[in-house]
Amino acid sequence: MSTDTAKPQTLEEANQRYEALKAQLKEGLDRKRQTDHDLTDLESQIYLYEGSYLSSTALSGGNVIRGFDSYLKANAATATGMRVTTSVQPPSSEDRMFSSSSATYQRSLALKMNEPVTENKSSAPSATAQPSGYKLKKKN
């Protein structure tokens, strides 16, 4: 950025200065747009990781959101031969502590909805989607 605040002497100097400032503004807006896109992707990834964590720990006895009170109950139930439920409910929005603590997550969702859909990406994170590179291990 130029700190030269002297008035341009000619129309050509004024046009050059205008074009330079216009280019700087365009570059800054492009960087901001890219940063917003990166933030949106990161928040979507957090949402997906959080959902997979909450889903995978729902039947195993507890997690950091709900607590681990049912951990002992689940072990006692399997030891006595009691039937343990195996249906997993999708995580509720109240359980999504990390996603809901983000001040910009709702704005990121709106940006993601307005983003043009590409071949490999959906416009919003789904409850069943997983972040790339992250695979849940199935228990035998």
UniProtKB/TrEMBL annotation:
Q: What is this protein called?
A: Chromatin modification-related protein EAF6
Q: Which UniProt keywords apply?
A: Chromatin regulator, Coiled coil, DNA damage, DNA repair, Nucleus, Transcription, Transcription regulation
GO cellular component terms given for this protein: NuA4 histone acetyltransferase complex; nucleus
| Record's subcellular location | Nucleus
Annotated function:
Component of the NuA4 histone acetyltransferase complex which is involved in transcriptional activation of selected genes principally by acetylation of nucleosomal histone H4 and H2A. The NuA4 complex is also involved in DNA repair.
Name the InterPro entries for this protein: Eaf6 (IPR015418)
Description of how the protein assembles with itself and partners: Component of the NuA4 histone acetyltransferase complex.
Q: Where is the composition biased (Polar residues)?
A: 117-131
Which residue ranges does the record annotate as region Disordered? Answer: 85-104, 112-140
Q: Which PANTHER family match?
A: CHROMATIN MODIFICATION-RELATED PROTEIN MEAF6
The record, for Pfam families, names: NuA4 (PF09340)
Q: Which GO terms describe its biological process?
A: chromatin organization; DNA repair
Task: Write out the similarity annotation.
Answer: Belongs to the EAF6 family.
